[in-house]
Design a protein that fits this description.
Blueprint (H helix, E strand, L loop, with lengths): L17 E3 L21 E2 L6 H4 L5 E9 L5 E2 L2 E2 L3 E12 L6 E11 L1 E2 L2 E6 L29 E5 L15 H27 L5 E7 L1 H12 L6 E5 L5 H16 L19 H15 L13 H7 L2 H4 L14 H12 L22 H9 L6 H10 L12 H7 L20 H4 L9 H5 L3 E7 L7 H14 L8 E6 L16 H11 L3 E7 L22 E4 L5 E4 L10 E4 L1
Parallel strand pairs: 9-10, 9-11, 11-12, 12-13, 13-14
Antiparallel strand pairs: 1-15, 2-8, 3-6, 4-5, 6-7, 7-10, 15-16, 17-18
């Protein structure tokens, strides 16, 4: 029996429109949570005077310059005139490694300001100040934060790209990367906004994807009093555990890789190249695609798919040599082990399981599973220098390949929970949200959170995010949706891409929930076919409409086809 939660279509005109419908159902109507009002805008008084006229403790402003309208563009449209302010905070010389550290930042302050402030969390291991445009929500967003009138800050989280990843030997740099840079920059950013516009922000938001999504969820736990809304996309909120899982996967894949040896000759993708991933994806779709009422290349009902799809039974087994039409028994064992989640020798879970989704065919999935885990060293060096206590010696680290394949799940994996000497916080302390299921501070001030995650994310499992939401929902007696809503994106990889409708406007959805009380019953997502202003997604199946749209439904609801145009989101309802 399906429980029907779909409401009539209202103002959904395009791939990034948001269903702005009042929340219904559940117990949230009885929560009596505060309702925050809308922000009101202002015009910047002076840009260049901020270079010398703004003062804040331990802050150095390097420049404040006017950026003309159209100097930046997004999705083919001009970004309006704004003020670009650059600077640093808390410059210091480390007593540990002798390096000079500072928290670098840039802020972009629109001439015509909406009254809103956005902290843009950035990805990877930080170390670079990404353009503070607020363009992190989905693949090729058609309107970024600056275009929506936000004052946006971006930072390097306290270290430079030249210091990556060795900043991990400095305890304070670790803490800045994990959470303290946010706490340092937030009051300064709000003071700078007040200096620019004559008033501080009336509504403050925090958002990011990947590590930026982690920053967002950490901020909701640590700095809820400073922000009204949180948008976490593809959040790596258990990033150290996920890094361990990547090395576990590398060790599994290495047992069936056909191109071995030493880097760069070692090709882990030979364990499951794209032609064989396509065989696996085809089998997944054969059992799970139509469970939502329409065979359209997307697995909407992951819960039903867990029962319907069986790796051993449904994927052809090679009777002889691998020929691209089957998987060997050994390959199936490895795939099953990886998707079941990383474990130690006692079969104790070290990270989440993963769902089977047809998006595994994408190049990005392979990048995370086969390359970032060994050859380019992203996960090995993060574990070695940033997440382990004590960190690896900077004098001699084995090759990233050797480190990954020799990483011990019994003795090395626990180092992400360890403290030692000057490293007084473990990685699982400084990188993850404390008390992650407690959103009391967020709820009590009327703030809201939206979490969006691709089902084919190759580095952070959407199942981990679902387990987090389930725990939050249990804590609040089934009323988590009064403060947080979680949306899964079928086929989407890490942050974007894959055979997916990955273009969506989560930021507008969040603003409308926070400031108007319009809880998102669905977020409309579009495919980025040929001619898309935000950039074409070349991994879309050829039989999809270039303008296909689908509703992203709040978990645990599923987008189910009812009738009408099979390429249009209005033909789908969000149901159990």
């Amino acid at each position: 029996m399906h429980i029907h939660f779909s409401l009539r279509r209202a103002g959904l005109a395009g791939a990034t429109s948001v269903a702005l419908l009042a929340a219904c159902g559940g117990s949230q109507s009885n929560d009596n949570l505060p309702q925050l009002g809308p922000a009101t805008g202002a015009t910047i008084a002076s840009c260049t005077s901020l270079a010398t006229g703004f003062s804040f403790a331990e802050t150095s402003i390097a420049s404040a310059v006017v950026v003309a309208s159209g100097a930046l563009t997004n999705a083919g449209q001009p970004v309006g005139e704004h003020c670009l302010v650059t600077g640093t905070m808390k410059q210091r010389v480390s007593a540990v490694d002798g390096q000079t550290y500072a928290i670098g930042f840039e802020m972009r302050l629109p001439k015509d300001w909406s009254g809103r402030y956005l902290y843009q969390g950035n990805g990877g291991t930080d170390g670079a100040i990404a353009q503070a445009s607020g363009g992190f929500s989905g693949g090729g967003p058609l309107r970024n934060g600056l275009q929506l009138g936000f004052a946006v800050i971006s930072s390097d989280a306290g270290h430079s790209s030249a210091q990556n990843p060795l900043f991990g030997v400095d305890p304070q740099a670790r803490l800045n990367y994990g959470y303290q840079a946010v706490g340092t920059l937030t009051p300064m950013a709000k003071a700078l906004i007040k200096a620019a516009y004559g008033k501080g922000p009336e509504r403050s938001y925090f958002g990011g994807t990947s590590n930026g999504g982690r920053h967002t969820m950490v901020a909701a736990a640590r700095y809820a009093q400073d922000y009204d809304g949180f948008l976490a996309v593809s959040p790596g909120f258990n990033l150290p555990k996920a890094a361990v899982a990547q090395l576990y996967g590398a060790q599994q894949w290495s047992t069936v890789a056909t191109t071995t040896g030493t880097a760069p000759n070692f090709d882990l993708e030979s364990a499951l190249p794209q032609v064989e991933r396509a065989v696996l994806a085809k089998a997944i779709l054969a059992k799970c695609d139509a469970l939502d009422g329409l065979a359209d290349g997307l697995v909407q009902d992951l819960s039903a798919c867990r029962t319907a799809f069986d790796l051993a039974r449904d994927v052809p087994t090679c009777s002889s040599a691998r020929d691209g039409t089957c998987l060997t028994s050994a390959q199936k064992t490895v795939v099953g082990n990886v998707f079941a989640g990383a474990k130690n020798s006692k079969s104790e879970a070290l990270y989440s399981r993963w769902p089977y989704d047809a998006g595994i065919v994408q190049t990005g999935w392979a990048d995370w599973k086969f390359r970032n885990s060994v050859r380019n060293g992203r996960d090995p060096v993060a574990l070695a220098y940033i997440f382990s206590s004590p960190p690896a010696s900077t004098v001699a680290l084995p090759s990233t390949l050797d480190y990954a394949l020799k990483f011990n799940m019994d003795t090395d994996a626990p180092k992400i929970f360890a403290t030692s000497g000057i490293y007084t916080e473990s990685a699982m302390s400084f990188m993850t949200p404390p008390n992650p299921t407690s959103l009391d501070a967020v709820r009590q001030r009327g703030a809201k959170m939206i979490v969006i995650h691709g089902q084919a994310d190759g580095v952070f499992s959407v199942d981990d995010t679902a387990a987090w939401y389930d725990a939050v929902d249990a804590k609040y007696g089934g009323a988590a949706n009064s403060v947080v809503r979680f949306f899964r994106v079928p086929g989407m990889g890490h942050s974007r891409g894959g055979p997916a409708t990955d273009q969506f406007d989560g930021l507008t959805a969040l603003v409308n929930w926070v400031e108007k009380g319009q809880a998102p019953q669905r977020i409309v997502a579009g495919a980025r076919g040929a001619g898309n202003a935000g950039g074409e997604n070349t991994e879309l199946p050829k039989d999809w409409s270039a303008t296909r749209t689908r509703p992203l439904c709040p978990y645990p609801l599923v987008a189910r086809y009812r009738s009408g145009d099979k390429e249009d989101e209005s033909s789908f309802v969000c149901e159990r």
